[in-house]
Amino acid sequence: MSGLIPQSFIDDLLARTDIVDLIHGFVPLKKAGQNYQALCPFHDEKSPSFSVNQDRQFYHCFGCGASGNAISFMMNYNRMDFVTVIEDLAARAGIAVPRTGVSPELLKNKESQTELYELMELVINFYRMQLADHQRSQPAIEYLKKRGIDEALATKFEIGYAPDSWDSLIRNLGRSDPARDRLYKAGLIIRRDDGKYYDRFRQRIMYPIRDHRGRAIGFGGRIIDSGTPKYLNSPETPIFHKGRELYGLYQARQSSRNPERLYVVEGYMDVLALAQFGVNNCVATLGTAATREHLERIFRTTSEIVFCFDGDEAGKKAAWRALEIALPLLRDGREVYFMFLPEGQDPDDFIRAEGATAFTDSRQLRALSAVLLEHLTQDFNPTIREHKARLAHKASEFLKNIPQGNLKQILSEQIATLTDQEASQLEALTKLSGPSSIPRPHSTENAREERKLISQAIKLLLQQPQLALLLGEAEIMEARGSAGGEFLHTLITLIRKNPAITCARILENWRGTRYEKRLTQLSLSGQSRYAADDAPLTSSDFLQTEFLGLIDRLLDEKRKNRLVELNTIESTTKLTNDQREYLKNLNPNARRINPN
Ligand SMILES: [Zn+2]
After folding, report:
1. Is 162 in a helix, a strand, or coil?
2. What's the gap in Å between 74 CA and the centre of ligand 1?
3. 565 and 444 within one domain
4. 592 within domain boundaries
């Protein structure tokens, strides 16, 4: 049955699990005084700074700062999601995972989703049979041959053929009203104004899209003759969300559970062409630019992403967009590289001409830090004094988006050297003067929105406190500044200090204070809205996505609100230099700031 895992069970499970036994199964531990020690599995080192404390059931690395309990170890070391870890630990302890109840409405949604997944399997089979048997599938087969896709690969990726007909799918899988209804919900047929239906995909090669767990969720279809559009994807449906899914991720995970790196390429033909040459660790977004959700999903499978782009101007622009999205996600242990192909070549052309060894050669990879530095320095001449200051300032805008860690430190040092500044000066540039010195303007629409987002974030944290561990230091600091923001910051800090903390213990912490009542309300309302999810294994994924999305929106609101505040101050009083700079960055074109 679907539903959330009760917190009391998680507490009980942690009590039954011994962290020393558990970690010792993955990383051999040696007793050292009160603690156990090992070479840290989360960073490279020569002498052990990874320490496990049996009394506190906690690990900590003095080298890289990695720390947590048994659950966080399993999540980070084995790259499992939260629910999978709970199930794994429960299996080790020999107990079953209970789930809280599910409302009839949610159960019905889940049932209808299950029906859609099952239907998609039938449709995949149908299109595959058409490719094999249809009397007019020859041009499709010719096309695949021409692209070098052999039978084994076509089988692995379940490639099919949608015949040149308005109703072949409807005639085969949509004979009853409920059956047609399901095809419509799955986005496979289109309703005309007169209420009749026709097949969405016609005369196309069909590429089934599976989510990371292998469930069939949609299709990409490529036209065989000269019709348009050349590529057509399933529309958004209850089970298909373009901004979240990656073509090829499931197959890549089938090839290797923990690939060393994943390449992000542009389309499904690239994924197939590379797989044809044995490069199986490739994924493609579905006709959209990479989103934060995409990258979070990839980072759950590997610690290294390589973006593969055409070397032309459009490719460089796309690379820059990807870089900006990746920056806030680059905690220690995660890496992003770029690979620029010769102009006019796609991965298919390249691997055909140069071979797989050339494609996977790490020497052609460009580190994210190098791409960032190149971009920053292209408008500035670091031998000119004024340019140095402007470069330092521009760099600080990017640095503040990077979580604390090695990348941030190395980049800060490099930029400091380039601009003749002390790294600490640069650090100061990335911080702004605290909000306490600023008179607070009256409540605005934005401030209300901000409060709402904060409430929702707190609600999710009460439901699953470990969500706080997903945030970078920079994000946490940026959430401060209003009463609600300060509270959220305190809550997140509390959780990060006590990664195994439960909702009950959080409430205990504020018992007898003015926050108690509101917190209790939030903890109860959280249960009803999030009491279940589309499937047991995704409830944790779902909460993570929801939570990170909320934090993103919250930080956006805060930036907007800060602009309103500073405008208010500007009209009545003088801004500090920091505030003036900040205002300029927020709104570089629309404002002229009087130097006095
Ligand atoms: Zn470490």
Report:
1. strand
2. 15
3. yes
4. no
Distance 333 CA to ligand 1 centre (A): 9
- pLDDT tens digit sequence for 476-523: 777 776 778 888 888 998 888 888 887 777 877 776 677 777 787 777
Q: Residue 141: which CATH number?
A: 3.90.980.10
How far is ligand 1, taken at its centre, from the CA of residue 49, in Å? 7
Determine how β-strand 304-310 pairs with β-strand 335-341. Answer: parallel
Q: How far is the CA of 399 from the centre of ligand 1 (A)?
A: 23
The one-letter amino acid at 92? R
Residue 338 counted as domain residue: yes
CATH number at residue 575: 1.10.860.10
Compute the distance from residue 66 Cα to the ligand 1 centre, in Å.
Answer: 6
One domain for residues 113 and 182: yes
Same-domain pairing of 580 and 447: yes
**How far is it, in rounded angstroms, from Cα 251 to Cα 254?**
5
Q: What is residue 565's predicted lDDT score, i.e. its pLDDT?
A: 62
**pLDDT score recorded for residue 551:** 86
18 and 112 in a single domain? The answer is no
What residue numbers bound the domain in which 164 lies?
104-233
Please identify every stretch of the chain with a pLDDT value under 70, giving residue numbers as ranges: 1-4, 100-107, 110, 422-446, 473-474, 481, 511-512, 524-542, 562, 564-596
- Residue-averaged pLDDT of the chain: 82
> Exposure pattern of 257-273 as b/e (b: 16+ CB <10 Å)?
eebebbbbbbbbbbbbb
Cβ-contact 404, 412 below 8 angstroms: no
Domain count, the chain: 5
ipTM value, please give it.
0.98
Ligand 1 centroid vs 43 CA: distance in angstroms? 5
Same domain, residue pair 52 and 155: no
Amino acid identity, position 382: P
Q: 10 Å Cβ neighbour count for 191?
A: 11
Please give the distance, rounded to the nearest whole angstrom, from the Cα atom of residue 69 to the centre of ligand 1.
Answer: 15
Q: How far does the centroid of ligand 1 lie from the alpha carbon of residue 364, in Å?
A: 28
Residue 459, H or E segment:
helix 445-463
How far is ligand 1, taken at its centre, from the CA of residue 153, in Å?
40
Q: Could you tell me if 20 and 67 lie in one domain?
A: yes
Residue 378: other Cβ atoms inside 10 A:
7
pLDDT at 579: 66
Assess whether 581 and 441 both reside in one domain: yes
Q: State the distance from the centre of ligand 1 to the C-alpha of 61, rounded, in angstroms.
A: 5
Please check whether residues 357 and 385 belong to one and the same domain.
Answer: no
CA of 388 to the centre of ligand 1 (A): 35
Q: Domain ends where: 66, 93, 120?
A: 93
Q: Are 340 and 366 in contact (CB under 8 A)?
A: yes
Q: What is the pLDDT of residue 397?
A: 84
